[in-house]
Amino acid sequence: MQRLIKNIGWLLTGRGLNAVLSLVYLALATRTLGLDGFGHFAIIVALGQTVTGIANFQTWQFVVRWGSAPEGPGEATGFAIALDMISVVLGTVFAAVLVWSAQFWLPLPNELMWVAFGYCMVSLLSLRSTPTGLLRLRFKYALATAADAVQPIIRAIGAFLAFWFMPSVTGFILAWAASEIAIAAAYWVVASRQEKIDLSKISLRNIPRDHPDAWQFVVATNLSGSLLVAGKQMMILLVGAIGGETFAGGFRVASQLGQALVQLAQTVSKAIYPELVHAKDEAHDIARRIANIALVGGILAVGFALLFGRWGLETIAGADFGVVYWAMVILAISGAIEMVGASLESLLVSAGRAGTAFIVRAIPTLLAFLLLSTAMEWNGLKGAAFAVMGSSALSVIGFWIAILSLQQIRITIETSDNPKAPKPPST
User: Fold this and answer.
1) Would you say residue 425 lies in a domain?
2) Which of 87, 180, 346, 427 is close enough to 126 for a disulfide, judged by CB 3.0 to 4.6 Å?
3) Measured between alpha carbons, how far is 334 from 310 in angstroms, rounded to an integer?
4) For residue 301, which of 252, 269, 338, 343 has the smallest C-alpha distance?
């Protein structure tokens, strides 16, 4: 538990730096581009992150799961790199289709289409899940934090350069693209210094040969990761498709500030997963304690958003963005819910129930997409935020029910194996 808290501390340090610098480049982008221009910027970034979110396999989980074998992580790393290559190929095709079709459903000017496609390609070529897994496998969270720091620093510098020399959507997209390349390079350099990467072991056969459930795990974790990452970005795209670029920009700002907790939840989840894999017997207890801590942190963060959110919005983004205050508060509540559920989802995945975790998240996410138009007709951006919050709440409730079911099954099996063991309590 002590190591887990230390690792979370390192990850939160990186998130803290990212949060501070994100306020700087968010202020520069919103004040330079205005509501409409920032809306176009938000749509392009969402397109790139949607493509990578859907195409990218959660290869860091494979490295952690199969890389701890006595022979080392060589084959797990080779399997992960092979999947990364597939991600780039499939992602390129998906990016071409998505950007080409954008003219029919997104409020994106034609002159920005090639900018959007270029950003998608840079995002695909900057995948860093595999080196992230190598660092987490060895619990090198301090080094991961140092690599993480590269992105916000480059992004902030790029935002200043764009503000002075190229105050346009293209200028800020170039800054974001440069930061993606920089952080990917930093991760690969740091990881390769800690663990030799043997390119001769790149293969899609070795791991499935030794682990018959490998492809099932790959598909389940990819789908779950796609829902978590791309689902958020798809929400921005759909908000833009329904309400226009102004709504997309407003929702992006509200989401970035209000759902900072979702990023925190993802950070906690990434730190917990390796611990739960290594500590099977104590996994439930670890997840429970982290969930309790997250609940307290979530309540404090929502209170902070209520008290200081409007002032923060108008100070950072300008008075025009003050109208998204309540949407930001609702998304902050959603982030708090996700923060509590992060350890529960990690517990399911570590127990080999990645497919269950996917289904539990997929159904509420699909419902949110289906109800988005009705929610926005009812209450604009606040309606969209309520759709996100409802999806988060249903997902976390589902994780909790699934874990209770797993515990009941385990107790039943132990009782049947040992007739003298105490019977499970009747309910």
Assistant:
1) no
2) 180
3) 18
4) 338
Question: CA 364 to CA 388: how far, in whole Å?
Answer: 9
Per-residue pLDDT of the chain (427 residues; tens, 9 = 90+): 555 555 555 555 556 667 678 888 889 999 999 989 999 999 999 999 999 989 988 888 889 888 877 777 889 999 999 999 999 999 999 999 999 999 999 999 999 999 999 999 999 999 999 999 999 888 887 888 889 889 999 999 999 999 999 999 999 999 999 999 999 999 999 999 988 888 889 999 989 988 888 898 888 878 877 777 767 889 999 999 999 999 999 999 988 877 665 565 555 555 555 555 555 556 566 666 666 666 776 777 788 888 888 888 888 888 888 889 999 999 989 988 887 887 777 778 777 787 788 888 889 999 999 999 999 999 999 999 999 999 999 999 998 898 888 666 555 545 555 555 555 444 3
Tell me the C-alpha distance between 183 and 144, whole Å. Answer: 10
Q: Is residue 427 part of a domain?
A: no
The pTM score is 0.81
**Ramachandran assignment for 139, one of left (phi > 0), alpha (psi -120 to 50 degrees), beta (any other):** left
Q: Based on the structure, what is the number of domains in the chain?
A: 1
Q: How far apart are CA 227 and CA 61, in angstroms?
A: 16
| Token pair listed for 241 | 């498709």
* Domain encompassing residue 10: 2-417
List the one residue out of 295, 375, 308 whose CA is nearest residue 338: 295
How many residues are given for the chain?
427
422 found inside a domain? no
Residue pair 403/352 in contact by the 8 Å Cβ criterion: no
Count the neighbouring beta carbons within 10 Å of the beta carbon of residue 31.
Answer: 16
